[in-house]
Design a protein that fits this description.
Elements: H1 3-13, E1 34-38, H2 53-68, H3 79-95, H4 109-117, H5 139-154, H6 164-176, E2 183-185, E3 188-190, H7 192-200, E4 207-211, E5 221-223, E6 234-237, H8 240-252, E7 257-261, E8 268-269, E9 275-276, H9 288-296, H10 299-303, H11 320-328, E10 336-345, E11 351-356, E12 368-372, H12 373-379, E13 380-386, H13 392-397
Parallel strand pairs: 4-6, 9-12
Antiparallel strand pairs: 1-10, 2-3, 4-13, 5-6, 7-10, 7-13, 8-9, 10-11, 11-12
Helix pairs in contact: 3-6, 5-6
């Protein structure tokens, strides 16, 4: 999920949704949310200038799973999965002669892959910053690694050396640190794999990633065609109504949900407004006169004009067909991973999902926001849930 590019776009799109408000603003106007259900979770973290949302969301999800199972609270290292995936991603990129994606992004399955194959480690054991920064800044590392694997693929020597991967791994170690083979934590010695199984109780096989698209059969698995799916991982495919049913049932029964979605919509107003919604009327649906009027407005005038929603309003009805068209036209892309940790209702009784983000305490909601059900139906690319959270009737159709 290429979150850095999208975050620049968000600054532009926020003008189109200015006027939205959220619970707790100083004027006591706008959206007022009341909690319905909140699942135990850990504090908001900050991926800062790194494209590693998939790992931040995944570790948050695992931390909540531990709390659900009665395990102690722990801050898991987000950079451990990043380090391990970068190594394997480099090998695949070279084997594919450069004809696959290589970069910081990933999909939700990557967290399960790392937990199963490499384990997990605490943040204090592997903070993943060996350069002169207090927060994660990955632009240089990402570019250096890309240049390295591209040089290997170019293969000017007509024969690859047997040590090229050692050079790549050494570079990863230089930026993120050397991955511990074993470590002490709370008086016991662990390897990353024993820490994941014995201390955390996390088994990646207990979780599945699910999506909903009509270009593949329902109730079967398929490889979702998004660039960051470098492992070619398979997703279960269910109808849209059942995808939402899975999310709702999971949260209502105490299971949080790992969520991947497009965040480039005009209604993704989480920075200033703390909401993600799909307004009923959008720019592309204006007539020529309205578009002309809109284009002539100053930014300040736009803030108080066509998209002024100072309270909950009508949202688009999202069908399976509408959702599919957005994916096929690439209006919906795999941008960002987040963590659904609760349900809340606005003053009209409309239910929203409470979302834990990974951009630090960047808004007045301290890093959280509320996503509407239409937003989830329209912009979700995938979810990961515990198999036990899936309603039995749907689980049977999925043959789980």
């Amino acid at each position: 999920m290429q979150t850095i590019k999208k975050r620049f776009l968000l600054a532009l799109t926020l003008f189109l949704v200015a006027g939205f408000s959220y619970a707790g603003n100083k004027d006591n106007e706008g959206y007022k949310f009341q909690s319905i259900k909140e699942i135990p979770h850990t504090s908001v973290k900050n991926q800062f200038r790194s494209g590693t949302c998939w790992s931040f969301a995944g570790m948050s999800f695992f931390e909540s799973e531990m709390l659900r199972m009665g395990k102690p609270e722990v801050d898991l290292s987000e950079m451990f999965p990043v380090s391990m995936c970068y190594r394997d991603k480099a090998i695949k990129y070279v084997r594919m002669q450069g004809n696959t994606n290589f970069g910081a992004g990933g999909v939700l399955y990557d967290d399960l892959y790392v937990a199963n194959n490499y384990g997990l480690v605490p943040e204090k054991v592997f903070p993943g910053i060996k350069y002169d920064e207090e927060k994660h800044v990955h632009g240089e590392m990402d570019n250096v690694l890309r240049n390295m694997v591209e040089a290997v693929v170019e293969n000017k020597n007509k024969k690859m050396s047997p040590v090229w991967d050692e050079a790549v791994n050494s570079t990863i170690d230089s930026y993120l640190g050397v991955v511990p083979q074993n470590f002490e934590y709370k008086g016991k010695n662990y390897t990353p794999k024993s820490f994941a199984s014995d201390f955390c109780g996390i088994n990646g096989d207990e979780y599945v990633q699910i999506t909903s698209f009509t270009h593949h059969p329902f109730y079967q698995q398929f490889i979702l065609e998004v660039p960051d799916n470098w492992l070619w991982s398979e997703f279960y495919n269910v109808p849209l109504d059942e995808l939402q049913e899975i999310v709702d049932a999971s949260i209502e029964n105490g299971y949080s949900v790992l969520w991947a979605a497009d965040v480039s919509e005009k209604g993704f107003a989480t920075t200033q407004k703390g909401i993600a919604v799909i307004p009923e009327k959008i720019t592309t649906e204006m007539n020529d006169a309205e578009i002309s009027k809109w284009d002539s407005l100053s930014e300040k005038e736009k803030e108080s004009s066509l998209y002024k929603f100072d309270k909950p309003g009508k949202e688009r009805i999202i069908t399976q067909e509408v959702r599919q068209m957005a994916f096929d036209s690439q209006e919906t892309t795999d941008d960002h991973a987040m963590h659904l940790i609760g349900l809340a209702k606005d003053e009209n009784g409309t239910v929203y999902y409470k979302v834990k983000n990974s951009w630090g305490k960047y808004n007045d909601l301290k890093g959280y926001f509320y996503a509407s059900k239409p937003y989830l139906r329209y912009k979700t690319t995938a979810i990961v849930v515990n198999k036990a959270a899936i309603p039995e009737a749907i689980r049977k159709k999925m043959k789980l």
